[in-house]
Design a protein that fits this description.
The protein is mainly α. It has one domain. It has seven helices and no strands. The longest helix is centred in the last third of the chain and has 29 residues. The chain is globular and about 50 Å long.
Length: 231
Amino acid sequence: MAGTFEPYGATHAAAAALGVVGAIGVVVGARWARGRPVEERLRRGFALVILLFTVPLQVRQWLPAHFDIDSSIPLQVCDLGWMVAVHALWTRDRRTSALLYYWALTLTLQAVVTPTLGRDFPDPEFIEFWGMHLMTIWAALGLTFGLGVTTDWSGFRFTVRWSLVWFAVTMVFNAVAGTNYGYLARKPAVSTPLDLFGPWPVYVVVLLAVVLGGWALITWPWVARDRRAVG
């Protein structure tokens, strides 16, 4: 029987190690497949793996025995991130890949570093959390550093627009339903970087500024590289 998940305990370390090994494998494999006929099959195969893994576990959350309005609605960025990953892998669309790049390599990555998770392995909650988060990150790394689907200021602006839409919808839903999706209504019970940003609503404003600044920073190297290539 699964116990309570302990951040930075043995199972957290094992999941993190799996994440690192998987990331290396995905990037190396994507670089090998890049430009070859097999690339599309591998991309779409990975998209199907994410879909087949995640959908049954998400549906499980809607069953009467497991439904919880505080966690079962797919409003967390990480819940949307796997859907973006499936589309980006299937289509190789640059805008969707940019959205995945920013979300996965900042917000989803932060979630695996400071997870707010109740149940430990082998509870389905644990398996869903780590599988969904790690595969989203792997997809972003594979597309960006493996297949070369990089971003620019256009991808940055696209991501900011859709992120602000998510922010507005989630704030309204939290206010109506009394939920805390995105931790926009209150901080999580466990220690996270949000503790450094002051009380609500100050931390929400600071978080937005930090995230946008971070996204700008991880856009600049690709823009600078493209300028050097043109020059």
